[in-house]
Design brief:
This protein has one domain. It is about 95% helix and about 0% strand. The N terminus is likely disordered. Keywords: Coiled coil.
Amino acid sequence: MGSPTQNRNLLFSIPGTKKGESKRGKRHRRMSGNKEMKSQGVPEEALANRGTSSLTAAVEQVAKQQQSQTSEIEKNKKVLFHLQDELHELEKQIASVSTETKETERQIYQQDAAIENTKLQCGNLETQIKSLHTENVKLKFDIEEAQEDYEEHMIRYNEYYAKIKEHKDSLWEAGSKRSFMTTLHEKRDLVRKLKTMKEELMQNLKNPEGNHIKQAQEDIIKLKAKIIAVKESIIEKTFFLEEEEKTHEKLRKEIEVQHKRYNAILKRLHCQVNKLQSNRRQWQSNIQQLEKTAAELRKRLSAFKATTSKRMIRQATDWEKILQKLHLIKDCYLK
């Protein structure tokens, strides 16, 4: 701030302070008039009367000037208060605009964070889809291997069944090929042999220590042993056939169970893949929507910053000029 003389000069330079200049001029003229009157030899009483009248007039004029100055000061104070109120309102508007810009920036940051999170989730979903795809491929390979094993087992089973059928057919054909005549000749030969054997046996009966009786007993023992061996082989073969049938039945049931299980797994995997694909489409649409909203918010923010920055700069410069003048006026009146 300047000196008191400079402040007084500023006061007199402000519009409405021209009365000070007129007052000085009047005083100067009055003093010059007094000097002239003294020099011309006017009487002292007349001069005294004139001086008192001029003093009263000057006092009245000074009082009027003080009243006018006080009224002007009040007006200037009112203007100052009004400008201060407008300045506070402007500061409030600036604070509200700054809070709005901060809120929009925070929303944009939140939108960007949400977009990043959705992108990460999409990446995780893609990795899950890839892993499920690999598992699906592995299951397909396992199913193909199980199918091949099943086909091999079925081929073996069919071969074994064909062999058994051929064996049964051969036995049936061998039994059916014997004709009636061959059986008749065989029976005749057998009757002849039996007759000869009967005669020999009759002779051997007469001779109990004969060779034929011993040989017949040995033949009977051998036949019994053969019959027992044949029965045992038949029992073993029937048991083996039953075991084979059981194993075939068990394999067939296991193959059916495996088919059902693999079909259920395939259905479940198809459902999971469809669900993941739908989720992926939903996330992609959400990402696009969020990107659109973020772009719109950025455009609005840039436009809002451009418009508000220019307007606020102009208003700030105007208000700075006004405030400088007001501070000068205030300092002058206070001093």
